[in-house]
């Protein structure tokens, strides 16, 4: 039997797949079919009209926001659980080895948005690139062991770093120059709301900064003395 941690991991992976898709509506439809849920059933769980689900899936309605995606994923898992949880269990087993705790040090979703400027204070940050983009809202963060992530994560695994939304801070620890995380993000083409580097970074890598400028994503260097202090600052920032 899968536990809550595994179920939450499956939920984050599904939400990440939907929110980072070029066609979120098609992704919702694909996952709905994987869970063998009819549009009418999903609509009843969400307390909306089936036509709304149809409009999302067909692209007639604008892509759903973070809140709607979160509710849809919860409805998938809840409906499956009522039928015995076989689909969720299968995905929990499939992704059980993905995103292990030694790579993902912490992952949080914010109930309320946090401004980039406020998150900089939480990590004792120095701005390296794109200061003019710090007024955007962030809806979560993921803290990553950069060495293990770059070496071990597949493109599919990497998607799971984004949780329920790409509008989050990806925080890379054990960084020496910052080049590898920026290259990995550029290659995969999924841009977070902020990138934070933490580690033995004496000066910013010029190529890393250039990539951040091209991607138009705020790049921050955390001055926290240890990873533990970094996590503490981030956890205290959760609204």
Overview of the structural elements:
It is built from 12 helices and 6 strands. It is of the alpha/beta class. It folds into 2 domains: 4-94, 434 Repressor (Amino-terminal Domain) (Orthogonal Bundle); 104-237, HprK N-terminal domain-like (Udp-n-acetylmuramoylalanyl-d-glutamate--2,6- Diaminopimelate Ligase, Chain: A, domain 1, 3-Layer(aba) Sandwich), CATH 3.40.1390. A 6-stranded mixed beta sheet has the order 1-3-4-5-6-2. Helix 10 links the parallel strand 4 and strand 5. Helix 1 crosses helix 5 (66-82). The chain is elongated, with a radius of gyration of 18 Å. The mean pLDDT is 85. Residues 28-76 form the HTH cro/C1-type domain. It comes from candidate division MSBL1 archaeon SCGC-AAA259E19. This is XRE family transcriptional regulator. One of its GO terms (molecular function) is DNA binding.
List strands and helices in order, with pairings:
Layout lengths: L3 H16 L4 H11 L4 H8 L3 H9 L7 H17 L3 H9 L9 E12 H7 L2 E5 L7 E9 H7 L2 H5 L9 E7 L3 H10 L5 E6 L6 H10 L3 E4 L4 H11 L2
Parallel strand pairs: 3-4, 4-5, 5-6
Antiparallel strand pairs: 1-3, 2-6
GO molecular function, one term: DNA binding
Organism: candidate division MSBL1 archaeon SCGC-AAA259E19
Protein name: XRE family transcriptional regulator
